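Honest question from a wet-lab person: if I give you the sequences of every part of a complex, can you actually get the arrangement of the whole thing, not just the pieces? Trying it with mine:
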Amino acid sequence: MSIVPPGFTRPASAGRRRVLVGTAAAGAAAMLSPYANVHAQTPRKVSISLPWVVNGSNFWPVIGRERGFFKSRGFDVDIQRGFGSIAATQAVANGKFDFGFVFTPGIVINAARGLMVQAVATVGYDSLMGVAIPEDSPIKRPADLEGRTVGMVLTSAEAPFFNAWLDRVKVDPKKIVRQAMDSQLIERSLINKQVDAITCIGTSSLPLFQSLGYDTRFMSWAQNGLDFYSGQVITRPEMVEKDAGFVQAMVEAFIESLIFTLRNPEEAVEIITKLQPEIAAVKGGRENFALAQAIAQSTMVAEEAIKNGMGWADMKKLQSMIDLTLKFGVTDGKPYTVEQIATNRFAGKIRLSAAEWDGVRKNTAGVRRLLTT
Amino acid sequence: MEVAANPALSNAALARRREMLLTLRRIGLPVAAAALFLLVWEAGTRWANIPEVLLPPPSAVLDRLVRNFPLLMTHAWPTIWQSLAGFAIATVLGIVLASLLSASTLIRETLYPNVVFFQLIPKIALAPLFVVWFGLGPEARLSFSVFVSFFPVVIATLAGLDNVERDLLRLCRALTASSWQTFVSVRLPHAVPYIFSGMKIASTFAIIGVIVGEFITSRVGLGYLILFASAQAETALILAAICVLCVFGLAFYGVVAVAEKWTIRIFGDAPR
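Yes, you can. This is the full assembly:
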């Protein structure tokens, strides 16, 4: 793996670089960061919020912590669960956490309300928002949803964009009965046939259905042009302005954590199940976790990352996500520019080789059938 | 002087004035405290330039309340009627069960430990199961509301029925009153203040039960609106919905308190 691209230079001082050269035995990971030696003795405490409880799509920062990718850069990270991407984004903006790993809708919705954070790395390029229906359902196309009951978790990232999708597939929103559901019940409500379909994030619901042996079909909203990015690493704008070296080092630690799980998906699941035995204790829990990881990783294989390096975001695509949010999600929101919520300043420094991308494609090939209608 | 001419009248006037001042104080102090709190909140959010999405000033909440009043009322109605129904069912069930527990030693020995056991269950954790058992309709929210608000009524009523003075019960026996007569004439009137204590707690629990139920599953209701507003990062609307909920809760509690005074006036204030 080519962790550092040719010609990449870091904003370390010449003196510090000499020290790094002199301590080469400290390991390649430690040398990557201008922060490493500065904080080698007194690790800087950094708090990170996940979007939700640890699951297969968001656990990779925990693996990074366990593997020492943050520690080697001088950071003592405290990773906490979140309560949805919107709340996690607010917690980061409010200074309760230094960084967050959240879903893009959480960022763009809060920004429409005037609460800005900076996405400093993009790690998932399809949020997998969609509608899940039972395999044997008579619902074959979006129009078949008319007159049916659709369950949704209102605080889930996809819920505000249901109308946007209905608009794109020319379905009258008034002809659909919406049933708000708790996140603990949403999948069960479909299995119990209490609702005809559910809106969901593919990485959350589809693995659960599979682990319970319940076959579903999935209408991906991205196929209708509603393609939102998924996971992004965020921090506060003032952190980007005032402590760019710190942000750079953290982004690299995040990316290195992610790459470890891309290269070693099974080992990553092994580590997390040892750390949190309750994952394997529930029926199908481990399989559910591994599948969610595979689905999430399948969304990481994108032109943006392949061409420009890990963490890179297409600003035009992000702008279209903002436009969609203001048109359908937060109709009374304030307009803002993409630069106010995202930057590629820290991204693209680390790349995977073509062979490594092929490896990820191969590892995740099996999950594509779950993402089809 | 008039005071000197009619001291009795002036004393009555003074007493009335004192009573009026006391009433003003009773109302004025909490209102002034609330006004001061809102003022500090408004000034604080403006001075610290806190984004509205994190903490909107009271003026923004009021603005949402006024602008979205019809929407808030549309969502308030299902919450209100389900809370009232849940409360009514819980009160009747609670009083009946407490009466049975008080009337029969066998029933008490059989059921009371189970009542206490159920009291210890973390009820919120069971909320999703009510949807599994009762479906997605109002039945799930109503039954959860009853489940949550039922126990305070049972425990309070039982305390009231049990704590009758022994002399009164001995007198009933001496007068050869039947168990039913003793219950209706002595135990129940004596328990009225206790029952209303339980009902006051139940009135708030019934609302909480419905809101939790709406958080779990709903199509309308203030709980639904709060979740919807959360998804839109519309903090002012969340607080506006909570305001409506608080006003209803306060009014509901007030009605129960007035009913207590009215009932005690009818039955007489039994000694505790």
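Two things worth pointing out. The longest helix of chain B spans residues 7-47. Chain B has a mean pLDDT of 90.
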